[in-house]
Amino acid sequence: MAAGPPADYSALIMDERPVTAAQAPASTAAPAHIAWHEHAIFALLGVGPGWLLCDALFLQIPWAQATQPEGLALSSWMLSAFNAANVVVVLLLIAHRLWPRNPRELDEILLVALILATVGGLALAALLWQVATERHSVALLAFAFVGGAIGALRLSVMMPWMLAYDERLISSAVLGGAIADGASAMVALVQQPGGVRRFSPSAFFLVSTMFALPSLGAFVAIKRWYGHLLQQPAARSTAPPTGTAATVGVELEQVAVKSASDKVGARAAAPKRAARPWLWRAVRLWLVFAFMQSLVWGITPALLPFAARNAARGSGAALASEDVLSYAIDVSYLGLVAGSYASLVWSSYRLAPQVVLLVACAAVTVVMAYAGQPLLSARAGSTLLVGSTALMRFMDGYATAMIFRSVSADTRYGDAQQAVQRAISLAERVSTTIGAFVAFWLVGALMRADAAVASD
């Protein structure tokens, strides 16, 4: 485990040394060591208020696109439903404005509601996922909307709530959500929704429901038995100064009084400083996170079915396109688990290499989706597609945890920490929405190209 609070993620962008809790005047007392069971309880908490419902739906796309009316465009339609739910973030902002008591109480209520919504959504999906009209998969799109609402609120609710705890536990919570996604991916690997189809999506959704249930118990346990992890204000002595310390205190006070008028004049003559010196740092994090999320969750998921189809068309084809798509999706979630775990045991704040690698991985999917002819053999193309998707999700899991940890650890944000974290969360929603619109247009172009080829 990396010792001590991490540096500000944006320090590598601005080339400045961050001010962490270890360097600032002591105002909080966090445990120097966090036991494994404390990491585990926060990992369990991270399962429920997250993307488990959305990801479970996405894992079944190889099956659903073969049986539902949208076909290869199903992924794009589901992404649109995911992102239509972003309106709940606006409702959250209004609720925080109107909430008459401590905002933390509202966040706790919403955390429980998100956990229950995840469990309920997965259970209902097991019963109703096949409901569709002649043109659209009504049930899948409705559950995608609910899952998108849960995911939209996840970072906006959970991360500000976790500011009261040691920032290392943020990685634990992110890891918990990723482990649940990875466990669902393992179940999907056994199921083979794009090929063998050993059991139905209904059974898959029921198993995924079991993964979400412990999250509610973890929340109760944290409230009842893990209060010692809360960062409390450091105690200050109220005893009067004595001896030499008292003399020094009096002298310092006299010096301060003597120079007070000089300081007032100096302030008047000095140039005005920004009221929010952290603002540009936060904006840069906002922009970087938005760009990364627009690629990972906005554009590439919609193009992945087309890339898998083209990869399977290469020479020496041994797998159907549904098999390639299934492996790419399943292994990508294992990459997400690995990235989230890496953020817990190794802290690196070099942002530029991560962004470059992520763009390169996303480019593989885009190029393969638009390639008129297979660029590689089926084996090489499928391997490249699966590997690039897994690496992209690895960096997503790592970077998400580290960005929010950097805000939690940097004392320069002061009372604005919650606002900054919610703003970064909003960046995810805005960017994935824009990415979904772009993806919808790209998928439309691909569908028109397919129709033109078929007519010829």
Automatic annotation (TrEMBL):
UniProt keyword terms in alphabetical order: Cell membrane, Membrane, Transmembrane, Transmembrane helix, Transport
Residues annotated as transmembrane: 40-61, 81-99, 111-132, 138-157, 169-190, 202-222, 282-304, 324-344, 351-370, 376-395
InterPro entries assigned to the protein according to its UniProt record, in alphabetical order: Riboflavin_transptr (IPR009357)
GO MF, one annotated term: riboflavin transmembrane transporter activity
Keyword Transmembrane helix included in the entry's annotation: yes
Cellular component GO terms, alphabetical: plasma membrane
Catalyzed chemical reaction(s): riboflavin(in) = riboflavin(out)
Domain of life: Eukaryota
Keyword field contains Transport: yes
Protein family per UniProt: Belongs to the riboflavin transporter family.
Protein name: Uncharacterized protein
UniProt organism field: Diacronema lutheri
